[in-house]
Design brief:
Order of helices and strands: EHEEEEHEHEEEHHH
Oligomer: single chain
Shape: globular
Number of helices: 6
Strand content: 15-25%
Distance between the termini: 42 Å
Helix content: 25-40%
Strand order of the largest sheet: 1-3-2-6-7-8-9
Length: about 230
Amino acid sequence: MFRCKEKYHVYITHNTYRGMLLEAGRHPGNESIIQMPGIRIGNDFYFDMVADSGINATYTPTMCEKDHAYADHLATRLSEYYDFSNGQLTVSQVHRHPDGCLRFSAGDRPANIKLAQQYGGVVNGLLFIDPEFRIRFWYIDEDGGETEAGYEINDKAVRTAMPRIDLHKLKETVERNEVTLKGFRKTWCRPTEESEAKGSICSKFVGLLRGIGRREKLWTTEQKKSCR
């Protein structure tokens, strides 16, 4: 049956929902933030897992300053589990708001715009417990415009849109990179009278090879999320 839905739509798994509940439950009465790496296909956004606010985050009833290094690292690692060949990598930030604050605050706007400009538009969300736990999402364009987006918990849709990386291909990549690195070391890293010069070259190439297959960081640690 045809189902009418908003222009922008968010699909999350039960794992995503569980992660939101866990983070909100750890900090009753305070704001908290989660980050979600996911995939965008057209105007649809899909998310499976969340990165929590972090070990050294600051929580108050009106503001959360996430632990940027921890949250960014964890979200980056989570993204590496998925195959993004059918769409583009995206990031969503969702945070809790105090009762009665039903839209993004003026303090949220700069962070929303910065993330939207980085990814060509994003869906960010707010959590409420008033007294029922609920979620609202908005699509944020690169100018900061907000369009409410619908969402649903749909594990099957998310699994179809963002399957896990194929283990056989991943195994082949790991083995190929190892052979390449060992071959390079054998050729370039032998001790000689020019060992100092070649050692410098070798170090640079080893660093380059180790970077093969790593996904670029989802966002920089300079991005600050201050939720007021």
